Amino acid sequence: MTLLRSTATHAALAALTLPALTAGAWAADPELTVFDWAGFEEPVIYQGYIDKHGEGPTFAFYGDDDEAFQKVASGFKADVVHPCSQMVSKYRDAGLIEPWDVSRIPAYADMDPELNNSEVFHDDEGVWYIPTDWGATAIAYNTETVPAEDVASLDVFIDPDYAGRISLPDSSDDVWALAYLATGVTDWTDVTDEQFKAAADWLRKAHENVAAYWSDPSEQAQLMASGQVDVAWSWNDGVVYLQADDYPVGFQRAPKEGSSKFICGFVNLKDGPGNEDKVYDFINAWLAPESAKGLLDTIGYGATTTTGMETVKDEEAVKTGLGPIDAPILNQTPNDPQQRNEQLAEFEKIKAGF
């Protein structure tokens, strides 16, 4: 099968089991270390960097935003990290990052305002975050075994008929986005205690149906391709991998309760061991309009610049995986760090059966 890009997957496993640049899972240019999600080492996403320097950066991989933060906070050395937006405050509050010099990033002026509209990303003290990619979290399902009407509601995840046939991400942010949507909340920046409890109760019901929590999109795709799982709460990339293997996958982004949208990007770590000029070469290569097609084809995500999205606007993957939908959207924008910590702690209890 093609869906398991073995280098990235094995690299991700290595990053979980070895200590330091352990994370030297994908070793190349020793003057730039990128701490990233497995899968983003695909050269077509940053080809301009390779064209300039003759090789790509050294990549270290992680499978979860909180795991990445803990490693960096514990002393793991890299130059940049690729968190999703709700983690930025955590890195900044811990004193781990420094502002970007956007005068060295020409494409920053072309950033889609909708994807860069947060005081957490930029304030009077500087620009702390460069959004680079965005996508959806929605229902991936086997179109041959799951009727379309069953995925017209997020309640498919608590339907007893699907006991042992669903998979959820081992990601607190994504499962809470699902639970909030399922219980009628579309803005997680203003959640009451009652709404939190309702979402937690719903998640406990969903947990009873879970065959496995997936830690990266390749694992999710493998669970579905093996026949173990028929329905998953999925990012775009898991669907792209399954489509590449001719698996009968649907991506329901418009159940009646809605789906989720996330934004990810890069933070610049303080005292990175590499070459700062190469840090900016890497970001500029990522944001180049010609990189948008590679990002869409290999991961299924959208570019954050208007010129980048213009180059792919007519692609089918944009229409089905990123385009407008007639349903609510919960934007995974930065929320209260204390609330996020409570969600993380509650999710761990739920997974443990409590």
Automatic annotation (TrEMBL):
The keyword RNA-binding does not apply. GO terms for cellular component: periplasmic space. GO terms for molecular function: polyamine binding. It comes from the Bacteria. GO terms for biological process: polyamine transport. Keywords: Periplasm, Signal, Transport. It is found in: Periplasm. Residues 1-27 form the signal peptide. InterPro entries: SBP, Sperm_putr-bd. Gene3D superfamilies: Periplasmic binding protein-like II. Coiled coil: none annotated. This is Polyamine ABC transporter substrate-binding protein. It comes from Paracoccus jeotgali.
